[in-house]
Amino acid sequence: MGMKLYGTNTTNVQRSILPILEAEVDIDDVLELEFVDLLKEEQKSPAYLAKQPFGLLPCLEDGDFILYESRAIARYFAEMYQDQGVPLLGKSLKERATINQWTEVESQTFNPVVAGMAVESYISGASKRPLNEAIINMGLAKLKPVFDVYETQLSKHKYIAGDEYSLADLLHAPNINYLMTTLKTEAYGNYPCVLAWAQNITSRPAVQKVVELNAKWLKQQTP
Amino acid sequence: MGMKLYGTNTTNVQRSILPILEAEVDIDDVLELEFVDLLKEEQKSPAYLAKQPFGLLPCLEDGDFILYESRAIARYFAEMYQDQGVPLLGKSLKERATINQWTEVESQTFNPVVAGMAVESYISGASKRPLNEAIINMGLAKLKPVFDVYETQLSKHKYIAGDEYSLADLLHAPNINYLMTTLKTEAYGNYPCVLAWAQNITSRPAVQKVVELNAKWLKQQTP
Asked: Considering CB atoms only, which of B75, B80, B108 is closest to A107?
């Protein structure tokens, strides 16, 4: 024990802890999860803002050390466990650079498109109101030029940054899984290589385990 | 020689090459600059799209190796020259994590607010039309809650990720410099610690050199 993650059932939170699960570490041995209720705006409480001044999830507490931003937390765990399980960070300068290129594509290009849809699905589910179809359709339209590029890349390589699984695939996995479970045909219909990649990376035990944890968080949320 | 950077006078392009200048390497010895004219949409030409399929600048060609995304290129150079000039990447796991946290804040929170203003200034300048004040004012309003957090951090530390200059400051520098030269009072007026930091990081010789290069690119653009 020792580390505590403030989080809830969002893809941002899933992304931050996936490297622990890829390292084949029993997450319950190293990390305690503290549920933060977004519907009650607990992320804007003074106690939480003292840790994460932007009022965003997740936030990691490792003793006195506070770390936020899901991708920075994911890199922290990837480096902490780099000798356990699957290597995520690349062996050479050029391998690391290509992985970094695709982690940047994820955060700058893929995520802004999908996050809007994921947030809308989260809020409509949590507050039990119908989905705003306009937001979903706009997201799907913006996703097409992104997946056009991904399809070409994934027709040449098994994984997004090359022939080995890496942090670049891992950081995509939670939102790719969201699209698999909610919008499979609409998102992947015209992209056979993207679909094969999506099925491949979301069938990993680490991603399946994060989905289980997600269900646990959902239960905590529903009184 | 050997490397070629496709770019123009934008803060994204400046960001990508700053680590070379911090390494006190003569940039003309290692990198050739190939001007891409955004006003002629050269970034959407088939030849350029074959290198950078999203049609964005910058893009690095290092022999057969192609690398895009400004922050990934910056990390590539930071790691390539890590033993020369100022260290940018952090010495311990926790130092690197905190630097990564603030590079993520730069890319996820700071940049989306400032990029809109920088792009508007770039287009209005390049196409010689008046500035759209509404875009600038909206950007300044969104910048306030970000600088509220930065002011607190910079009242405790000389640099954004702690007491040493790092990649987190470097990735901010081009847009911080843009705000210094165009909107100093409006952006920094109520933030003395942010202003001191902005003056500190933009007065570095590497940033001054990037501004000189910028002027050279501008000249190439104007027939």
From this structure: B108
Structural domain boundaries of chain B? 3-87, 93-205
Residue A94 near residue B65, CB atoms below 8 Å: yes
What class, spelled out in words, does domain B3-87 have in CATH? alpha beta
Provide the CATH number for the domain formed by B93-205 in this structure: 1.20.1050.10
- Which of B56, B76, B96 should one mutate to test binding to chain A, selecting the residue with the greatest count of A CBs within 10 A? B76
Verify whether the Cβ–Cβ distance A67 to B108 is below 8 Å: no
Helix axes A192-202, A167-182, angle to 10 degrees: 100
Q: With the C-alpha atoms ordered B38, B41, B47, B51, is the resulting torsion angle positive or negative?
A: positive
Q: What is the edge-to-edge ordering of all strands in the sheet holding A65-68?
A: A31-35, A3-7, A59-62, A65-68
CATH of A3-87+206-217, one of 3.40.930.10, 3.40.30.10, 3.30.750.24, 2.170.150.70: 3.40.30.10
Q: How far is B67 from chain A (nearest CA, A)?
A: 7
The class (CATH top level) of A93-204 is mainly alpha
Count of A-B CB contacts under 8 Å: 76
pTM of the model: 0.96
**Per-10-residue mean pLDDT for chain B, 223 residues long?**
88 96 93 90 96 97 97 98 95 98 98 92 86 95 98 98 98 96 93 98 96 81 59
